[in-house]
Write a structure and sequence with these properties.
about 325 residues; UDP-N-acetylmuramoyl-L-alanine:D-glutamate ligase; eight-stranded mixed sheet; four-stranded mixed sheet; 10 helices; 14 strands
Length: about 325
């Protein structure tokens, strides 16, 4: 059985990560970092986490034949991720992000090919996954995404979405329809403010919760908060020694989804997401943390014992 289908609405990235950079280089200047890593990124980060936790994940992705694409494909093969929905084309190159990480924040320089094939809605019926996850959602062209959502509902699959940096807001009907169609929508505070046009993250969270039934707001070192019809769930972050925050949000998604498909309460799903994000922050790049179920369980039990609600009425269930 396929647990999670990740359609090609997100993008696979090669992340080139520099840490210890005092500032981004000025024109004609040069800066040096303390460390450097090449890791799979973009929506691959969540796929790697879910796969390592034991979920059967199929991601739809298209790669080129360049060095970056070969690295990503070899990384997938080494991890044992399925290539069932992977295509290689001569006219594409890898998506690449260079991240400069200092002690307070990150800066990015990215390359994205000018054209990328649309997702294939037929994968939903062919694979019949328990969940369809729009990881790193980019909506153009939008009709395939809407069709994927319709087909996911038709087969009874859960539908989740996370958002990438993109220009659309809730004022765009395509974006509003997709967010309104999902069972759970995940985003960070910056993304929530952009989508709603509201400067206050809490107000932006409430505005999104008026569109989607469950909205999870990832708040970095402040933890995470979820709003749904039964109220609010809020858990503090798990303290860690931060090495690099690239991919922490995607790792959160992976931990959250694993707990969700395991039948956990929303409280527990947020706890597992926070734990995965904490482990990712302690490593260089989101996929370098080698997150395991045992590590997550230990962190959840250590930091959230007695804080989670085991009420079965607050569980997501599957027929």
């Amino acid at each position: 059985m396929i647990d999670v289908l990740m359609p090609g609405t997100g993008r696979p990235y090669l992340d080139v990560i520099f840490t210890g950079v005092k500032q981004a280089p000025e024109p004609g200047g040069e800066e040096f970092g303390d460390d450097l890593a090449f890791v799979p990124g973009g929506f691959l980060s969540a796929a790697f986490v879910m796969h390592r936790l034991g979920l059967n994940v199929v991601l739809e992705a298209t790669f080129g034949r360049d060095l970056g694409s070969r690295f990503l494909l070899e990384s997938m093969e080494a991890a044992g991720l399925s290539r069932e929905a992977v295509t290689v084309r001569d006219d594409l190159r890898a998506h690449v992000t260079v991240a400069f990480h200092n002690r307070t924040d990150r800066s990015f320089l990215s390359y994205e090919p000018p054209w990328y094939p649309p997702p294939d809605p037929a994968l939903v019926e062919r694979l019949r996954p328990r969940m369809v996850f729009f990881g790193g959602l980019k909506l153009r062209p939008s009709e395939p995404a809407r069709e994927i959502a319709r087909r996911a509902k038709k087969i009874g699959a859960l539908l989740l979405a996370d958002i990438s940096e993109q220009p659309l807001t809730l004022a765009d009907e395509d974006m509003r329809q997709i967010i309104g169609a999902v069972d759970v929508f995940l985003c960070n505070e910056r993304e929530a403010r952009h989508l709603t046009g509201l400067a206050d993250a809490d107000a932006a969270h409430r505005a999104l919760a008026a569109v989607a039934p469950v909205v999870v707001l990832k708040r970095g070192d402040c933890g995470a908060r979820a709003l749904w019809p039964h109220g609010a769930v809020e858990l503090p972050a798990i303290p860690t020694t931060v090495v690099d925050t690239t991919g922490c949000g995607d790792s959160f998604n992976g931990g959250f989804i694993y707990a969700l498909l395991d039948g956990c309460s929303l409280d527990e799903c947020v706890a597992w997401g926070n734990a995965a994000g904490s482990l990712a922050a302690a490593a260089l790049g989101g996929t370098s943390a080698l997150i395991t179920r045992e590590k997550l369980l230990a962190l959840v039990e250590q930091h959230y014992a007695g804080k989670l609600t085991p009420d079965p009425l607050r569980k997501f269930t599957f027929d």
